[in-house]
Amino acid sequence: MYSKSGYNGELSHLISILEPAQVRVPLVFSSPHSGSLYPSDFVQQSHLDRTVLRKSEDCFIDEIFSAAISIGAPLLRALFPRAYLDLNREPYELDPGMFTKPLPDYVNTNSPRVAAGLGTIARIVSSREEIYHSKLEFADAEQRIERLYKPYHKNLLSLINRARDLFGYCILIDCHSMPSSGLPTAYGKKKKPIDIVLGDRHGISSAPDIIDMIEQYLVERGYLVTRNNPYAGGFTTQRYGNPANGVHAVQIEINRRLYMDEKSLQRSPGLNKLRRDFGGVMKKLAASSEKNNKTLRFSRQTTE
């Protein structure tokens, strides 16, 4: 395997594609929120220390899905943090109150994510604390979007199209984590927090066989798995999931308590178990692709 920069411009080192020696399966993995390299100008703009800023990271998720390379699939990673730029948003979901001047008309200022303070450029971290000590210039946001957001999605689309060209379809796995606090619990003899949430936008972004397979495998290994609650899939699954055109997108959210200390942000022994178990998920998905399942292939071409 090898890692390469996905973009030849400035800040290109903050995007990484881990490529197998040979692409053998129609799978693509994306980890947009696991980055922990903080640009110095961003740190200076914030009045929060790095420990607080890191609360928004999907810490170590790229490690949990690192077995992708061994089965012949690429893993695309953002190495910069979510607090700096959120790739699971539209390119221009921005809060006008964060900027010194009015924003251009094409900016989406009214989305629920902007209202929550979690737009493409977030206003707050997961602990609800304000990130910036002063207002930003729109040119700053535009620079991040042009130099990082657009190249990341350009590379993601390229990997998806390559898989579809080679195999007739692509399965995109969008990899995330979720804080343990505030999650729904399952009711039985004992209440237990949800371990994993699988999102396919309520059946819109993927063929049901794929999410069925993932859920069954994880449940058999003792995980409490739910679908589409409280996370049904974000911008990435919405943008790329198109089963009729042979692209199936599933978002996976993993409860952080399973593999890390959420206060110290340190790995726990559970990380190795998750890495093994998700390696098993990948092998299961890879094996199913060898059956040449025609139901997953594209049935029509768009006119785009």
Describe this entry's structure for a reader:
It contains eight helices and twelve strands. The strands form three sheets. The chain has an eight-stranded mixed β-sheet, with helices on both faces. Strands 6-7 form a two-stranded antiparallel sheet. Strands 11-12 form a two-stranded antiparallel ribbon. The chain has one domain: Zn-dependent exopeptidases (Aminopeptidase, 3-Layer(aba) Sandwich). The longest helix is centred in the middle third of the chain and has 30 residues, at 138-167. Residues 5-10 and 300-304 have low confidence and may be disordered. Helix 6 (208-220) packs antiparallel against helix 8 (270-289). With 304 residues, it is an alpha/beta fold. It has helices spanning 40-45, 50-53, 61-64, 112-115, 138-167, 208-220, 235-240, 270-289, and strands at 2-5, 15-19, 27-31, 75-78, 170-178, 185-186, 192-193, 196-199, 225-227, 247-255, 260-261, 266-267.
Characteristics of this structure?
alpha/beta, 8 helices, 12 strands, two-stranded antiparallel ribbon, globular, 304 residues, Aminopeptidase, 8-stranded mixed β-sheet
| CATH homology superfamily | Zn-dependent exopeptidases
- Spatial order of strands in the largest sheet: 1-2-4-3-5-10-8-9
Helix content: 25-40%
The tally of structural domains comes to 1
Q: Structural class, from secondary structure content?
A: alpha/beta
> What's the count of strands?
12
Sketch the topology as an H/E string, one letter per element.
EEEHHHEHHEEEEHEHEEEH
